[in-house]
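Practice problem: NHLP leader peptide family natural product
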Amino acid sequence: MDSLDRASAEAQIIKKAMKDSTFRASLIADPKSAIEQTLGITLPANVSVNVYEDTATSFNMVLPAASGSEQMGSDIGSAADCSGWSSAAECAAECTQCGNNDTTCQPGPTEE
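Answer key — structure tokens:
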């Protein structure tokens, strides 16, 4: 499988987990393997995946990486190419050509 949009991949995984209780259990027990098998991809060895299940008495929130730390790109299995920015966090927060719009980061207009 070629590059897969992260949002689409997450939606596909969540949809399957909502319909298939066996898959849901495997996703919670070993998320990286479950995702790799379902999407037909191999995530980089240095990538970890955490899956948390909301309950009636708890919910989970995902924060972006802290400033100065690297983030995964919008493509599953690839890191962002944040050339021109001082950090991946700055790229994701400020770049008009990447972050949440699913394109590969290139030097932005403020860098020209």
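Discussion: The chain has two domains: 1-62, 75-111. Students who identified this feature from the tokens alone can consider the problem solved.
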